[in-house]
Amino acid sequence: MKILVANLGSTSFKYRVIEMPGEQQLGRGGIDRIGDETSHCFVEIGEHRDERSEHVANHAAAVGMCLDQLTGEGGCLDSVEEVAAIAFKTVHAGNLSGVRIVDEELLAKMEELVDVAPAHNPPYVRAMRQLRDAYPAIPLVAALETGFHDTIPDANRIYAVPLEWRDEHDVQRWGFHGASHRFVSGRIAELLGRNGLRVVTCHLGGSSSLCASLDGRSLATTMGMSPQGGVPQNNRVGDFDPFCLPYLMRRTGKSLDELLSEMSTNGGLLGISGLSGDLRDLEEATANGHERARLALDHFVGQIRHHLGGYMVLLGGLDAIVFSGGIGENSSAIRKAVTADLQWAGVRLDDAVNDDTRSTETRVSTLDSDVEVWVVPTNEEVVLARQSADALGRTN
Asked: What is the pTM (predicted TM-score) of this model?
């Protein structure tokens, strides 16, 4: 069974072809600047890489191009019929969580939630509709990012608002980055060779979240009703007092929509630093004495540590802390800052190993550390392939 795993942006389409059940990656590729006069396209199959530039009108055309590449000379598929499903890392459909075959009910629910997932839901809905029309014989599978967090107890999910808001309007802490937290929590159990682990997974990147899991089940996570909540992102504010908004509306003359747009595009590390939302830029600027860049990094680390401490209490101690995502896998400085002075909690980082670790699966704590600290590169695509294969098995 061959699954085409799709990762969509508003103007991008990246994909991997994974053969199940062996979980072998057969090929990968991507198309950027969809809809522009010139789109950049690439495909990699084995050691062969092909790049080109041409106009790609929409996501259905992008998928058509990728299937042509995959079935053409040197491709990894004999025909389009070999594609058992197209799998999507879908962000938010409220109470329609878990893994679902894409249908009109799901698409309508995603459209209802555009207000809380404005950067994610619209391109996915648009692309799914285009693909259903263009390739009606290929099932579309949506693996909701909220699904891994379905096990969170109500006490850790609700907001302190009238409970009717949850029951009637789905207002609660849904949580995201589910595929990443699912993969990493499962992988650390394999690496440590035991079950029942108390783990905090730190998915740190352009968007970031922490998850507390017990025996591979999510018990709490930092993101909220929307991917805007939790720890600060590269350009999103994270947690924020909503009563600041009417005050700012009066003081600035800006509308609610204008302020929300500013919070979701010019907040986070970018907003604090006034320089960049890219952590690499901020680390370099901090080294050169840029005080706002240092403040942004200090706030970012402080918020991560705040939630890490709370999750230690929730879990009654820790067996492992795991870093993943672009920042978690590559920034030794952030890993060191997050775990600094935690010897009292049994956390001892091996500075030499940590400094040398970039995007490789490595234990970065000392051998006598009671809490193991690991870097585990995430693999969201293989999670989607597994979930899609299971979903197809249930429907056949």
From this structure: 0.93
